[in-house]
Structure of Peptide methionine sulfoxide reductase MsrB:
Amino acid sequence: MTIQKTDQQWREQLTPEQYRVARQAGTERPFSGEHYRHNKPGDYHCLCCGTLLFHSDAKFDAGCGWPSFYAEAAGANIRRITDTSHGMVRVEVRCSHCDAHLGHVFPDGPEPTGERYCINSVCMTFKEGGKV
Ligand SMILES: [Zn+2]
């Protein structure tokens, strides 16, 4: 982790909803996020620290209500941890720079990776353009 802030600093930087999802591993309501039906070309960055996470060319509609990607962007810094909350074993994905919760990755995505990153809109900011 390269960015470390106190709880108080995160609370000042983020809205209550952003704080709840990104810093407390919450989940936004499905079909509610601003990036769910968002198809512009560009890059998705970590809300908390701005690091690159995903590029729009790996985004697809999984019908699950959250933005879905089949791969992280080249050079993205995403780490995986086993999440056993809610009586399930899932793989949680976090920003490795600031440890923000992003969402989960599931083994049921499309080719070429076969993975589905199910990510909360509220944890990302979008920058139009970037690599095409
Ligand atoms: Zn981050």
